[in-house]
């Protein structure tokens, strides 16, 4: 609802034509995109703790129309109808105790597990019948209108004047509660006093009822009810001329992303021209100024400042890709900002040209996919001279040549001169700065490089990066040696990575400010970091970066991107404590976590895990389907999956020696294992290891585990972790995200990824057996380790192999064969416990190879 309201009010002057520059509402488009992502990722759920809620109907339909994604709307509405619709109205949500006869109205809070008492006897609210009638009018569904009008008709009461009134809700009388719980819908419900003419009207119902009747009678048009046409996709709404940008809810298929190419110098511009790439220098786009987005952050810090209300303005956080795609008018200047990916930072990622090329493609795809403003997005691509020193600069030229043709991976783009593109751009007037004292504020525009040279200077004069390698060495033997031996070794060592490790030891002993050869340890590390960066010697770059406690620039938004897509993140070294990111954090908090949780156990992983977090944030924004089935992205285990993949492909180079771009490609590869596993002849063991590292589970897996739990009074145990039936089931609901997180946590106690994935398969099999045999239950605790071991023994017996402690041969078998042995182990377990009633179904359906016998 708030998301929709923000879309509607953006650019509105609260005092209309008589308003001032300080009474205009501005909505941050990047923050809005996060809101959209949270909302659409959550659908058809209501929240992490609530699988469904009738309030979703007025959210996706009248009055909010919060999404125009047809599939989401249909799925959400169907979910609400299936789970909440009753004979008297809709339940608000499952286990809703409000107005129930069992509810103790004197208590402020429910006790733990108390909401389970309301299951099946929740009140039903006819208000949502009315919302469904109105929805049917907007969507032109006459059969839906008729259905809910007929349902509503029998619920209408009459007041003392004989006028129709709609009761607030219908409830189950105290005498009928047990009968209703035994058979849902069997008992008559009574109308509430509110809205029945007894205790006055329930005005909300009455208002909506009047509106629905006016609509269905043709006396009110939907355009009169929704004058800003939120029910239409944005590109079908009437255009309103205004000074400020207006939100759109959808994107027209003919959207074009405009691109301005800015060359850092004239000689770079000349070189690009020889390849047919036309660029502009900062001087050539004047009076328009090119800014870093950091300068725009200074401007937005003044937005909403109000000393009377003690408001400090917009937090100092980065401007995202959508925000940098507007042209700004601020303090008499016209400004275009280049995106964050072109910022030069102390973190090493900007040195990898292949990564930058991939980032540009991702950025353009993201802007094209999520642009929601009137006017076209205008993206500034900044080309620096240092880019030319990279061996992969040719790939950058290839990208620019592709963009020149008007397409980027199927999306329309247009390269042009900035002066020609401004008229069709989205222009944002930051008029709130008119009331700000800017006398002490300075804004730094991007400066053009000036070269003092006579005549034409070829860019071949610019030195290119060298390829560098060195034989790896370890210096653990020096850890307990006297300081002078460590210093002597340093003086006699030439290798870059070797020196990094030695300075790391010196840092650990003496600190950053210890002086050696006229420089502090910190200065030596900075010099080594720069030198290794020029050489593109990534293992040394990462090692130094970690010792210097570097943090990825603007990592916070990428963590937030993962969170708003319904996932959680954990960082930490396998075998040691992990830290969970389940809410947005400040850069300082993130740095503290990275260097306290990871670095003590693995120096390089302190920065390598930051890389993976960044890549996950970028990838999930444009390819959310790659993360399906993964509830919690455990970065340490993701790195383990990448290492396993390198072993499978006989790549002897350590993961930390690969370039940032190669690491991102490896991440993409392991996340998409389902797509290529069969084509590349991946063995069952290899696939189980990769999927197990990711802890990816099948669709509806957690619902299946809930069903198993409901038939297992003593709960489930695996690898020393026990998930009890109660209070788990009484405190949570089947589709609750918190329940899924509990199960995922239990699975994470399994240290071998192939074992973990086999346990996932086992739980699916148990669920299938219990579903097909409703008379079965597990009287004892469901010990998953015992079942896996039992299946392994059956495998050894059938294959006449020696019974070993190593289960790898079993995990290496084909899925259909593993399914058979696991199913036999499950049924044997049930039979041995005397828990199988007569007339049970056969388990042959799920892959058993022979009937099982009672031992």
TrEMBL record:
Biological pathway: Glycan biosynthesis; glycogen metabolism
Signal peptide residue numbers: none
GO molecular function ontology, one term from the record: kinase activity
Database matches in InterPro entries: 6-hairpin_glycosidase_sf, GH15-like, KPBA/B_C, PHK_A/B_su
Localization terms from the record: Cell membrane
One GO CC annotation: plasma membrane
GO BP terms: glycogen metabolic process
Protein name from the UniProt record: Phosphorylase b kinase regulatory subunit
Organism: Cryptotermes secundus
